[in-house]
Amino acid sequence: MVQLAELLKSEKTKIVDVRSHQEFMGGHVAGSINIPLNEIPQHLDEFRKMEHIVLCCASGGRSGQATMFLKQNGIECFNGGSWTDVNYYKNN
Question: Do the beta carbons of residue 56 and residue 17 sit within 8 Å?
Fold first, then answer.
């Protein structure tokens, strides 16, 4: 299994923050994109085009739900947990 810290350092990895737009605007991982949890089903085609996907949110709960949903739809992805943890591992 790929180590999350290594995955986050790859330029091919897309970090997807599944918090609300308002939460995302309050702070997020540089370079991440915001697709709120309730909008994930409408973005399946976009997810299928991504090579490596790490999902994050405030605590890991919503990103865990998004990870399960995407995996059920055949999309390989990882739950990175909280966006602050993802930010730390990406930059250290």
Answer: yes
| Residue type (1 letter), 8 | L
Residue 58 CA, chain-centre distance (Å), reads 11
**10-residue averages of pLDDT along the chain (92 residues):** 80 96 97 98 97 97 98 97 95 88
- The pTM for the full model equals 0.95
Name the nearest CA neighbour of 90 among 31, 47, 26. 31
Residue 65 DSSP one-character state: H
Domain chopping of the chain, boundaries: 4-91
Share of the chain residues as helix, strand and coil, in percent rounded to the nearest 5: 50, 20, 35
Helix (H, G, I), strand (E, B) or coil at 36: coil
Which class is 4-91 in CATH?
A: alpha beta
